[in-house]
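User: Okay, second chain of the day. Same drill as before: sequence in, structure tokens out.
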Amino acid sequence: MSLFQKILIANRGEIAVRIIKTAKRLGIETVAVYAADDIGSLHVKLADKAVLLTGAQLHETYLNQDKIIKIALDYGAQAVHPGYGFFSEKAEFAAKVEQAGLVFIGATAAQISLMGEKTQAISFVTKLGIPVIPGIVGAVSDILSRAEELEFPLLVKASGGGGGKGMEVVHSLEHLPMALKQAQRQAQQYFGNDELFVEKFLPKARHIEVQLLGDGRGNAVHLFERECSIQRRYQKLIEEAPAQVLSTPTKEKLYRAALQIARATKYRGAGTIEYLVDEQENFYFLEMNTRLQVEHPVTEFITGIDLVEWQLRIAAGEELALQQHALTVKGHAIELRICAEDPEQEFRPTSGIVGEIHLPDTCRWDSFLQPEMLLSSSYDSLVGKLVVEAETRELALSKLKEAMKGLFLAGIKTNQEFLIELLSQDDFKQNNIHTRWAEERLSESLHTIESSKLEQPAIVVLAGYLLHHFYRPSGSDNPWIQLGYWRMHSSFDVNLEGNWHEIAVSRKADTLKLNWAGEIYDLKNCQFFGSKLDFQLNNKDIAIFISEEKQLTSIQWEAKQLALWSNQVLNQVRLNKDTEKTKEVRTDQVVADLFGTVIDILVKPGDVLQKGQNLLVIESMKSEFTIQSPADAVVKNIHVTKGHLVQDKQILVDLES
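Assistant: Same drill. Structure tokens below.
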């Protein structure tokens, strides 16, 4: 049976790029859609045809079902691939696509409806004899009326969705009403269904998932398991395959249960069964994702199977040709989710203009980023996935750390330092982890990142700073210009992460002599490759990346970023009074420190506040941030309303004592 000639991708960013690449390899033309703020995205460039979705809000662009289906029909697409997120688990959209005479590349509308709603899915798998976590489902009032049945701690979550939205651990009855209210609001906002589910919380569980393929005829295979236990706020950070700590009998049980579900539903397409596995290797069905997962590359690495290709083949009507006995695992793969967020600022999402991009050649990099594109704050913070494979987990981890050192995304702050800090922990190396592990050591991790900046051998980044600003080749044939303004001998004062360093430089033949802290260092063999700078310091090879950001020079070395400046650099000159300013917290105004949309206002003018009291909630890159009062005060004015698009540094609330 022949494959499609043309498909439309009803998604954006990294997953759209991923689908386009496989489609091109198979000779299938692609139609991409994009909102105006995504015009610089790589998926727009790679598609055979890219169509603008007019409008400023998501419901006008990527979430406009009728508009997207019309584009598919107008441009001659035969099928629609939803990617993940957006419409990938919307039964209504899948049905509309097929009613329009197109093929939905994914599960059937009935399968999405059955497995996409947690209580239905749990009821279904319970009848199959698969273990589930005990819990209660219903509206807030229903759950509170049965509170005496609950065993704390428990987990509150939205019945109709996933991705960590609305999920919260509650340790006592007194905190339950507020947690339910917040989860209900998020459930309604993100999933259009405010029904909630509370269940027993398993504090030391591992998150294990089994990848499935089914052809809709009752044929199904599993592609083994992945471990996704490293999470923050229920969002996965690091995924790997296979899961090495589970015994073979437990793995076989997980496979059998997953295949039982796939065959009972006559599942069509790629899907994932997710489980929690406790310390005694008891396992519990968590949910089924009836779509491609973000972490699918690790499964592709260990099996050698292109999951997107099989999605396309199955959707085109092919029978599943893969045989379970012929599928094997080879090696180990690990994936890191690189997100545009600042861990040192409470993981606030970041946006801006992307600068130079340098990628290591030892890994797979799935991303939509391009130099000079605007990274919008309207979507989630995932900007790319760095994936490696090796013969063993230990070798994969070593390879991953080296790859992280060679990844540089200028112009945006990412969680790169945070991830590499997690990779360095003994618990992670020894696989002593669980779903709360990263969360429990969050403060310690952030402290380690901050303190490590002071422990770095300062001479490395100081040398890079001087080379970048004062000794970068000019391209001129004039030898005096080549020597630079600083001629043969100079002294510099450079501020590195708040500390001043005096460093003297002299030239001898093709070597610079650096005198710092009473030691002499030889610097030579400098090579400039845009923002990348290679050199030798005392015969040791050094590679750093440099970018300019708001009167600072940011240098990335060994995957860590450090900030430097000097009054000897023209655009970094600061007056003494500026450098002596303290970081006073204003108590008369509350100012936004991120971009986003106001989704809830919790106070009104005249309210008497206590320091730390919640004022409003802002959504940025699909994460929620609660803004709090900086002091005991009274609300004077509120400058925003629900739905207001907030800009960084915008005044939100006026306060008075």
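The longest strand covers residues 220-232.

User: Thanks, on to the next one.
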